[in-house]
Amino acid sequence: MNEYVVGIDIGSSKVCAAAGRLDRNNKIQIIGITSTPCSGLKRGIVVDIDSTADGIIKALEQLERMIDSKIKDIYISISGEICEITSNRGVVAVSAEDREITKNDVDRVLKAAKIISVPSDKEIVGVVPEQFVVDGYDNITDPVGMCGMRLEVDAQIIMCQSTIISNLFKSINKAGFQSKGIVFQPIATALAVMNSEEMKIGTLLLDIGAETTNISVFKDNKLVLNDKLPLGGNTITNDISLCLKLPQSESEKIKIKYGNITDAFDNEDFKIKINANYDSIVEVSNNLLNDIIAARIEEIMYLLKKKLDLHGYLEEISGIVVIGGGISLVKGSIDICREILGKPVRIGIPEYIGAENTMYSSAIGVVKDVISSGKVDFKEEKITKEKKKSDVKSIWNDEDDEDNDEENDEGFFSKIKDFFTDFF
User: Fold this and answer.
1) CA-CA distance, 29 to 4, in Å (whole number)?
2) Which residue stretches does the UniProt record annotate as biased composition, category Acidic residues (predicted)?
């Protein structure tokens, strides 16, 4: 699996997988995307290795059929709720004689930033550079190609408990795949649904999942706040199940189908017929259902407002981007968020054909992060392919001259094939 970068997002209710690559114009192209149910994780922690592995297998098998290619290596996202972030500075001397900074120097300074005291039960899973400093000049985003004698970096060091990472890798290995790297989920998701202006001026990324609501604030292109609320879409489902005495599965279905807390539907009450346990039909008031949903969403938004105010970012943010299928898909939830927090709110949707759904944000973000950071060099792969073609051509040249016409025909059809391969 060399032509594509595959990113997966393992959540509490589903596994999402995306495959992407660079097209001929050096733009990231998402070729395939899929999702399958999974119940092996709870709040970012593996609670059932077999169930998690099964969800990964099903998602990647579907993705293999979509892209018509075998998948071996994958990149995974790790939830912000289980990570700890600390800041550190790395310093190195530029190694080249002409004092030109290379990618090797950048790799060295990032490794230097990782030299910190790490608790015995934790490990470093990632380094996110905030800014580079060259000979005292700061706010540099990409120092490669610049000249200097001293290279520094201010970086965020991401740590996680070793047992959590170990169980996640075991699930992936049991599924028959190999993890080539970890991407921090809040940053990956921001790459997929936020623009550069939002990352700069101060924006809240609200990821409402099944079990938790993750809070990420970005300002000056940096992640300045990473927090969570222990409430999500399943909380509303549980409320419906308890109040209306319905099975969890039926509660989830009517939440998605009839959930509507807009003002226009306040007076339009009707009865919803539900097939409850033992094949009995139960009638539920639509207004009562939506009162239950609205009450919990309002509580989550007030808790969110309190959390932002506590950290001092309520007045700092200029807008809110909401993702996740837990609450954002309920009609009217965005209006409540806008009313309580007093900020412009929009739903974050990836701008890729066939992937215009908030639940795919993290998987697409993993692909974008891996490709944009240069972890995969597609140019080398292209050179390898060209070398193979030239080797084949040299074999043809050793044949008799009478086969030259067939060689030209083969070359023509080969070019046509390569064109369509690159195009699609």
Assistant:
1) 10
2) 397-409
**Rounded Cα distance, 231 and 210, in Å:** 8
d(CA 212, CA 253): 20
φ, ψ dihedrals at 305, nearest 5°:
-60, -40
Q: Which residues contact 140 (CB under 8 A, 6 or more apart)?
A: 131, 132, 133, 134, 146
Q: Which value, to the nearest 10 degrees, does the dihedral of the CA atoms of residues 175, 179, 182, 187 take?
A: -70
Are the C-beta atoms of 351 and 29 separated by less than 8 Å?
no
- Separation CA 387–CA 393 (nearest Å): 10
Taking alpha carbons only, the member of 46, 37, 47 closest to residue 13 is 37
Which residues are 281's β-sheet partners?
A: 275
Q: Which residues contact 342 (CB under 8 A, 6 or more apart)?
A: none
pLDDT computed for residue 383 by the predictor: 41
Q: What residue ranges in 338-394 does DSSP mark as E strands?
A: 345-347
Q: Rounded to an integer, what distance in angstroms lies between the CA atom of residue 147 and that of residue 164?
A: 41
Across 327-366, the runs of DSSP E, i.e. the strands, are 345-347
73-78 and 5-10: which strand pairing? parallel
Cβ-contact 44, 10 below 8 angstroms: no
DSSP-derived secondary structure for 17-81 = EEEEEE-TTS-EEEEEEEEEE--SEETTEES-HHHHHHHHHHHHHHHHHHHTS---EEEEEE-GG
Q: What is the DSSP letter of 358?
A: G
Q: 379: which residues sit within 8 A by CB, 6+ positions away?
A: none
**What is the crossing angle of helices 248-258 and 286-311, to 10°?**
90
Residues of the chain with pLDDT below 70 are 1-2, 263-268, 278-279, 325-326, 377-424
**What is the 8-class DSSP label of residue 357?**
S
The reported pLDDT for the residue numbered 25 is 83
pTM above the 0.85 mark? no
Chain centroid to Cα 87, Å, comes to 22
The span from the CA of 308 to the CA of 232, in Å, is 17
Q: How many C-beta atoms surround the C-beta of residue 79 within 10 A?
A: 26
DSSP conformational letter for 139 = E
Strand partners, 272: 284
